[in-house]
Amino acid sequence: MKDSITMKRKTSRVLCTLLLALPLLAHAQSSAINNAIRQYNDGNYAEAAFGFYDVAAFDPVIENRLKAEYYLAQSLQKMGLLRTAAFFYQAVMSQGPNHPYYLKSIEQIVEITEAIEDDLFLPFAVQQEYNAEFANLPPETLYKINYLVALTEFRRENPAEALSFLNAVPKESSYYAKALYLRGIIKTFQGREGGEQAIRDYEEILSLEDTPKLKYWELDNTKELAKIALARTHYTLGNYAESKRWYERVARYSTYWDVALFENGWASFMAGDVGTAMGSLHSLAAPQFSGSFQPEALILKGTVYFTACLYDETKKELATFDKRYKPMADVVSQILEKHQGAAEFPFYLSLVATPEAQPEKLPIPVRNFLLDNQRLKSLIAYLNLIDDEIRRVKDVSIWKGSSLQKEALTQLEAQRENNVKVTGRFIRDRLQKSVVDAISNFDGQAEILRFETSKAEKEMLESGIDPETRLAGQTLLRPRIPGDQWEYWSFDGEWWVDELGYYKYTLKTACAEQGAGGGE
After folding, report:
1. Which residues is 507 bridged to in the sheet?
2. pTM, whole model, 2 decimals?
3. Of the candidates 78, 73, 98, which has an alpha carbon nearest to the alpha carbon of residue 88?
């Protein structure tokens, strides 16, 4: 009985102590948020973040905690720790519309998404949160979110859902050009009618111009992509001359110029312009494109020679394909077979490190092919951003050993691990589909061409045709000159940068009743 009374007395004293301390604690926490605000207003963002973090964790006044959660993220954003800031904005967003800074946090997430050029991770987070409350966001923020959600749905293979969000991005949005482009891509998979609608979308992109009041996001780049898309769509619809015209309008030396040069080879060939087709391939053989991955170029050259009955040249191109690309496929196949499973994703990321740092060597053209991919460039840039923020968070002296530093590093390292998985998977899949499977597909085309060449040679021999005599009787004319402002220079074995893309071929032909074409 005595022990129980004593215990009650002790408990009473503790309760009294707490009751007396609460006003003092509330006053201390009120001072804490005021101090954090003062540091923020003075531009001392590291100190402000440290203070807001403590207020968010310990302040008994809920209004203070909610305010501190938002301004913690704001402080980090002001420090340039954008991905770290996004983690804390996401923490606010995850609490739902009742949080007083819910919509403001979503606005900042969208702003950070633009700043770090993240079209994957943060857009997915926003897509998961999308709800009716988003209608209360500023219109432009909502339009951007509609585009980002559409992009996420497109990658999840939900084209109808993606289109519904794209149609909610109006012309007065800075993301309108990007929305038109993505809408066109989706439409091209919807038959001829969809392709024709896509053409209208791409042409509208090219008609857009920035104004003092409205700057379209990445308009110049989107216009170049629209030209490529127009060329591809016209090619798919069988409009080969129009396809060729659009490929030739892609800006020289731009990001997509080498793609346009190669694909214009096929468009020109299908349009009957063999000279331009071979000229495009000749440009791609220049030293400026050395180390590039172009297996299909040899198939196209072999096909052009085959149609001119130049069978020795056809076999030479096919032999070059076998010698150059089949060993590459073997090397990559061995790597893929050896490194399977999710645990190997970090290994695949290491394959695009500097050559001396690679654990296993990829053929140089394959590595260049990977690194030329815009999606992979974005993923690697994102990883570099995370690594930079990890270093910077560790270097903030006032945060050393603090809960803020530990939580920030935990979040960053988790994001880094996720990024490595995504990037490693992307590299592995690209090696399989765009290298091994692609070379296998082209090898199948080469075998068909090789068979047809052998068959045609036999038929030519049986018919008594002497290809050498036929070729000797033809005059090899120079290519046609488009106009008086053009000059003709014969290729002397040396490539000049300003000549790339302007080469034209004329070919003799060993086919019956055909003379040399494409010249004058």
Report:
1. 517
2. 0.89
3. 73
